[in-house]
Amino acid sequence: MGRTVEYRVVSLGGIEPARSRHAGRRSAVALTEDAVVVGTAAGDVLAYDRETLDERWRAESSNERAAVVFVAPFSGGIVVGERGSYGEVRLHDSQTGETCWRYATAEDIGDPQKQSRFFLPFVVDITSDEKRLYAAARRYERDGENRSFTSVVYAFDADGDVSWTYETDASPISLDVCDSRLAVAYNRCPGTHQSGLVVLDTETGAELHGWDPGTDGERRVGDVSLMENRASVTSHGDYRGYLLGADGTERWQTDLATPVEIDDETLYSYPNHVHATDDAIVFITGNTYSTEGRKTDSLHPDEHTIFGYCDGERIWTDSVGGFAGEIATDGDSVAVPGAQHFRARDSAIHGLRMFEVNTGSRTTLETNGIVTAVTLDDETFAAIEEPVVYHDEGTNHGAYQLLVGSIGQK
Question: Taking the model in full, what pTM does it have?
């Protein structure tokens, strides 16, 4: 039997449309027991009643050039991560929106070299356990052909005090916590830090062990998912997926979007996301690139693909349509927001795709605009749609809006 999708829409106002290429995250969404919380490209945080979708409160931003790129419930409030001049981490009261505490990561990682998007301090990921909040922030610099990063991983207590930090000159991309372990994935390592994955003790911040694909170049790890005594990673270094043991030893690996020869070009795709359960692991790949340069008319056969694995064996695959800047998970379910496919530029692929990890069963919500952020809570999802204009078409597809719905049976 097929699955139906019912949803409601709330306008989030105007926004500059996305273009053919991806400009990075600028929106976020989270579900709590009684609210849907949205972080906007203008830096505002909006809370809506989960049942009626009436606005409950809004916290307007006073930070110049700030976009909210992460929101999540924590310690009875709503934690926020920004991309902006200050790279703030904040906690808002879940009932009123009042700011409980705030921390400017730019005080540690430095002020932006330029006031443009990719140079702004960026809170790349946030996760939590019952005791603490963990956040990773980075700042990018460029001097001619030389690129560098300054980054800090923070452990915040519930009152906003910093319990410990872990600093490197690499670019963190993803965090995950399980038991007393915090995993940090680094997608670029151009400096002295040369480990794509670091596992830290949540109590002290001490490094327990690391892992690296051992490849040349600064590209290392795209994402990490922790399980009890195991970790699964996507490798940007060799375009593979890995299952690691508790001490970082490799249990198995698999090719995901490794280089192929098409029309006298060598093409590859970065595996960007992973989600592991006790029964299965899913990996998700991104855009096609060529070793000869950024421009290519060909596509890697395994780009924009989700792969399901069990005990190291591939059990299903499916298309995710376009580039996924993030994923949302809840147990055996994973939601993949579909943004631009900047080479094909086909608006028909826009939408949200939800999969069952064990079987690959898919439910699709088609949208006019691109879906850039999503969260899952059992059968309920909330997603952000953004407008897009492709450079060779000139048509505005979609609008800036919140989509809240449920998945049921026909």
Answer: 0.96
